[in-house]
Amino acid sequence: MWRYVPVEVHLSSILVRFLVKVYVRLNHNSPRILCVTKRLRNSELIDPIFQWHGPGGDLVTENQTVKITPTGTLLFRHFKNEFSGVYTCSLVFKPTIEQDEKSYLIKYIIYAYSDPNFYYEFTARYHAAPCNSIYNTSFEKKLLQILTKLVVELSCEVALRKSECHHVKMQRAGMQNEIFFTFTVASLDTEKGKSVCQKSACDVTRRLRKAKDLIEKFFSQQVEVLGKRTAPLPEIYYIEGTLQMVWVNRCTPGYGINPLLHPDCPNCCVVCSPGSYNPREGTHCLPCNKSLEYGATHC
Fold first, then answer.
1. What CATH number does the domain located at 117-250 have?
2. Burial, 52: exposed, middle or buried (Cβ in 10 Å; 0-12, 13-18, 19+)?
3. How do residues 87-122 score in pLDDT, each as one tens digit?
4. 258-271 pLDDT tens trace
5. Cβ pair 241, 210 in contact under 8 A
6. What whole-number distance in Å separates Cα of residue 39 and Cα of residue 22?
7. Which residue of 22, 140, 217, 222 lies most exposed, with the fewest beta carbons within 10 A?
8. Prediction pTM value
9. d(CA 19, CA 4)
10. Domain range list for the chain
11. What is the C-alpha to C-alpha distance for residues 150 and 158, in angstroms, rounded to an integer?
12. Which option is the CATH number for 8-114: 2.60.40.10, 3.40.50.300, 3.40.50.620, 2.60.40.2550?
């Protein structure tokens, strides 16, 4: 995916045009990156000479990662983070045999990007035993085991973020003990799974949504069971209506989401530019004057 920005600068006999912000999916092949302008695409060029220059110097015609066609088109194979940067193509040609040579310097900024990973974060509250009771700790472990078992077949995992017991003054009532649970549901990496999933089953979004539905159903069933109960309520039980869920995006370290800087890839995790970094699985590239490379993970 790329966007053409029609900026022209005349430097003596060289016409500089900027073709900026090309986005290449990480570990995929790039689109065709042309060494001609829109106006020249359908024009006849006499004795054209193409020369590409990248962050590491001049590009050769072909190697394991780069291919340059006879017409000057640049192609990347299995684009990596470190390939990101400014690329320029020098084009020299004659419009006609009688005319003098013309020179163009065409510039691209090529970014690696990936789709964001995401996870669900849930919060739920339980009526609890006294806050220093071992029964609360035992219940917490049992609850995590149940939730993990619910989603394991979907190649998802449950992780406890926080578990806190508090004394809560109820409206028009006395005090009670409550456990505030915060846990996440995320997709397991394919390598961590016990078996290789089929194409449809490997869809992360679909698997996570199924996991979310199973967890919401589990908490709804707790309410139904308590509603049918004739005996006194147990000491520890789910408090109806307290389950909350949010969708959280995350990028791998060195990448971030910035729709203002990258309007053509607004929801992409784009490699952090020089002058910025992302040290963790967040969604923002943070400013750092010491960072001189693309995809920095530390300042």
1. 3.30.70
2. buried
3. 999 999 888 888 888 888 889 999 999 988 889 999
4. 999 999 999 899 99
5. no
6. 19
7. 217
8. 0.70
9. 5
10. 8-114, 117-250, 259-299
11. 9
12. 2.60.40.10
